[in-house]
Amino acid sequence: DAGVIQSPRHEVTEMGQEVTLRCKPISGHDYLFWYRQTMMRGLELLIYFNNNVPIDDSGMPEDRFSAKMPNASFSTLKIQPSEPRDSAVYFCASSFMPGDYGYTFGSGTRLTVV
Amino acid sequence: GESVGLHLPTLSVQEGDNSIINCAYSNSASDYFIWYKQESGKGPQFIIDIRSNMDKRQGQRVTVLLNKTVKHLSLQIAATQPGDSAVYFCAETGTSYDKVIFGPGTSLSVIP
Predict the structure, then answer these.
(1) Are B73 and B20 in contact (CB under 8 A)?
(2) d(Cα B31, Cα B95) in Å, to the nearest integer?
(3) Any CB–CB contact under 8 A between B40 and chain A?
């Protein structure tokens, strides 16, 4: 398996623009997580899905953030409109059973909003 | 609320020495604990895990110790190598089995 695949690896955008981050989880993993990592806040859980259904989105900063999982092999995290404070590394992770096996993380998308 | 915290945010060790990274957790109901390693420019990578019914688990050059009495977790790395330089996170399941809660991380720097 190729692991969790995220795209793009780097994204630079202007304030106010829409940004879409993409994730392909490991086949067979029922859970998918979106995290944001910054120096100030560390790893923050934004939202997670189980069997394509959003379970907990309490970590989503505000209405500018939205996430979807239309099928078992694809998820998106969208920011509209983007702001400089959204600059961070965004990780996607997937798991068969988090409480038994933890997560497998993707390589992340480094987002810079100027 | 639930939290996982680290005693030492940074740690520098000489190559060949043993490293010990510590972690305090707050939820006595946590059943499962994981250590992750994050190298620069990469996502966190699973190193080793331990369940609450154990107090020690060993892997290749790594050992995790769990002290439930004082809610303390540690990661020991034997004969530390330059490739071990990274940020290390401890994580716990807390009250939910669906997700894990990450601590703030400890940066390990290996001096050649």
Answers:
(1) no
(2) 8
(3) no
Minimal CA separation from A97 to chain B, in Å: 7
The b-or-e profile of B73-88 (16+ CB within 10 A means b, else e) is bbbbbeebeeebbbbb
Residue pair B64/B74 in contact by the 8 Å Cβ criterion: yes
N-terminal to C-terminal alpha carbon distance within chain A: 36
Q: What does each of the 114 residues of chain A score in pLDDT, given as a tens digit?
A: 689 999 999 999 999 999 999 999 999 999 999 999 988 888 999 999 999 999 999 999 889 999 999 999 999 999 999 999 999 999 999 998 887 778 999 999 999 999
User: Searching chain B, which residue's CA lies closest to the CA of residue A6?
Assistant: B43
Residue B7: how many other CB atoms lie within 10 Å: 12
A89-101 pLDDT per residue, tens: 999 999 988 877 7
* Cα torsion B50, B94, B89, A9: sign: positive
CB contacts of B93 in chain A (<8 Å) are 98-99
Please tell me the distance in Å from B90's CA to the nearest CA on chain A.
11
Which two structure tokens, joined as six digits, stand for A45? 């859980």
